């Protein structure tokens, strides 16, 4: 997992490194990382002699990084041009660029050249950007490599100005910064590459940790064994799904199809009578589950939580259910059990507050989080949640004694004790009807499989492991959106079509 630090923390460590190694040394190291990233981006499209790399150069060290990077690229045979966006520039870096016959023009003088650029290096402001500063307007389709932070993005808050320079890739220095994964940031940073420059953060506690694809792979492999290949279907995870209503029959179908596409050992479904025929057609692998069978399964689970006697090893509750009445009967009994459960959509409107022995994951978006807070007696706006997502997500985690996944371009996974993880993706196409039902199917499957939870017999899954698996499900969901979007428009059904291939990429 990638540690994430505040701007203040990064500045403090950077100051220590400058005192030990010198500003010039660090600037040249950063520039080398920036130049290497530029070369990697250009290698896919043009040869060095055909490429024009333009640097948008600011007044401070960020501009110096850009000039030194242009110097290295010029030495490697690339055509380069520095466009000075302010009246002053970094003196030593300007001298270095002049030594390789680099051309420096003002932005107004060289603006027309931007339309011919193979790549633009944005080295205007970095972490020193302040909202409202004037920024150049780039031609449509310009490929941009951001130096440390895209210009127009407030790296402390993650809020971006309307004219922010949209980056295809961002090379950030020292460590991952909170503002690169918050609010607007995932929509403007592109792919983020962390160039650590050997900064020493050993005495600094990160604000959170980012779970990316590599980290998800490691977390998923933590309890896997070669013996898993010999398991039968009951040992590969039995998921109980309570979903659907006459008004929303599709939600149950989407969640069921997603769980089946993930490879769940057995999916048992409790849906309204009128939904069952539709579900049998959509997911013929599913096995219906009536009230009496749920009671029996819960009785078995009390004695053998995840052993051979447990007919259900985890639950997925909520997509499309009728939430107009309080939870009674089977749903209330499931909420009283000690089997892990993912609760989404209409299930969030009926999940009880207060202490619980059930390991739960709640998966709201911002408006649903506001509803959960209101049910717990706390009144906030969605804008307040947007400004401080971890704080308000923790309030819900405490009130409902559950791990909570606040969904969005940046997703926050928070436990009642305040521990938190972050998942960041820019697959905006995931904001489509039924996408959350697909995520519920993915996470429900993961909670049902003991090779992923690592629990057996009378054990129960810890909140820390719930957090990890929830983050992994969010990573897979984000990757699923990206892969599907590459092939056309995105719908929940098309996400499910791509799910088996994406799951395979994660070792399933």
Commentary on this structure:
- With 508 residues, the protein is α/β, with parallel strands linked by helices.
- The chain contains 17 helices and 19 strands.
- The chain has a 12-stranded mixed sheet, with helices on both faces.
- Strand 18 (410-414) and strand 19 (420-424) form a beta hairpin.
- The protein is elongated, with a radius of gyration of 26 Å.
- Strand portion: 15-25%
Unreliable stretches, pLDDT < 50, 5 or more residues?
305-309
Major sheet size, sense and barrel closure: 12 strands, mixed
Count, helices: 17
Shape annotation? elongated
Please state the structural category: alpha/beta
Give me the count of strands: 19
Radius of gyration: 26 Å
* Strands ordered across the widest β-sheet: 8-1-10-19-18-17-16-15-14-11-12-13
Fraction in helix: 25-40%
Q: Alpha-carbon distance between the termini?
A: 20 Å
Mean pLDDT: 92
Oligomer: single chain
């Amino acid at each position: 997992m990638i540690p994430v630090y505040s701007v203040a923390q990064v500045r403090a460590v950077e100051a220590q490194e400058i005192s030990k190694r010198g500003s010039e040394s660090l600037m040249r190291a950063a520039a080398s990382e920036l130049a290497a990233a530029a070369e990697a981006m250009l290698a896919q499209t043009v040869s060095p002699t055909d490429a024009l790399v333009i640097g948008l150069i600011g007044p401070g060290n960020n501009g110096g990084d850009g000039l030194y990077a242009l110097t290295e690229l010029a030495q490697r045979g690339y055509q380069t041009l520095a466009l000075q966006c302010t009246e002053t520039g970094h003196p030593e870096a300007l001298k270095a660029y002049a030594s390789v016959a680099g051309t420096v023009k003002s932005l107004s003088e060289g603006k027309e050249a931007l339309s011919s650029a193979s790549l633009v290096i944005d080295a205007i402001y970095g972490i020193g950007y302040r909202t409202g500063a004037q920024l150049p307007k780039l031609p449509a389709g310009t490929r941009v490599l951001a130096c440390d932070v895209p210009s127009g993005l407030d790296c402390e808050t993650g809020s971006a100005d309307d004219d922010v320079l949209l980056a295809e890739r961002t090379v950030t220095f020292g460590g991952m910064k909170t503002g690169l994964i918050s609010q607007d940031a995932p929509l403007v940073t592109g792919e983020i590459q962390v160039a650590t420059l050997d900064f020493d953060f050993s005495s600094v506690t990160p604000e959170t940790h980012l779970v990316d694809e590599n980290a998800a792979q490691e977390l998923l492999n933590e309890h896997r064994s070669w013996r898993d290949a010999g398991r039968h279907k009951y040992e590969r995870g039995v998921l109980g799904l309570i979903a659907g209503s006459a008004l929303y029959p599709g939600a149950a179908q989407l969640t069921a199809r997603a769980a089946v596409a993930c490879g769940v050992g057995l999916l048992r479904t409790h849906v309204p009578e009128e939904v069952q025929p539709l579900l049998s057609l959509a997911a013929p692998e599913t096995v219906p589950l009536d009230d009496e069978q749920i009671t029996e399964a819960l009785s078995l689970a009390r004695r053998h939580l995840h052993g051979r006697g447990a007919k259900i090893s985890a639950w997925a509750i909520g997509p499309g259910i009728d939430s107009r009445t309080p939870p009674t009967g089977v749903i209330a009994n499931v909420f009283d059990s000690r089997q892990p459960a993912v609760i989404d959509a209409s299930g969030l409107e009926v999940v009880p507050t207060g202490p619980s022995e059930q390991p739960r994951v709640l998966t709201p978006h911002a408006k649903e989080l506001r509803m959960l807070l209101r049910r717990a007696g706390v009144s906030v706006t969605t804008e307040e949640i947007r400004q401080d997502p971890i704080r308000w997500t923790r309030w819900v985690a405490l009130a409902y004694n559950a791990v909570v996944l606040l969904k969005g371009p940046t997703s926050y996974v928070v436990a009642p004790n305040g521990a938190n993880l972050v998942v960041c993706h820019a697959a905006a196409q995931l904001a489509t009807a039924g996408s959350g039902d697909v995520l519920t199917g993915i996470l429900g499957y993961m909670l049902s499989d003991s090779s992923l939870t690592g629990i057996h017999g009378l054990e129960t899954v810890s909140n820390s492991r719930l957090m990890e698996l929830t983050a992994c499900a969010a990573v897979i969901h984000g990757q699923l959106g990206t892969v599907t979007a590459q092939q056309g428009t995105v719908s929940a059904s098309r996400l499910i079509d791509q799910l088996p291939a994406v799951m395979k990429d994660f070792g399933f």
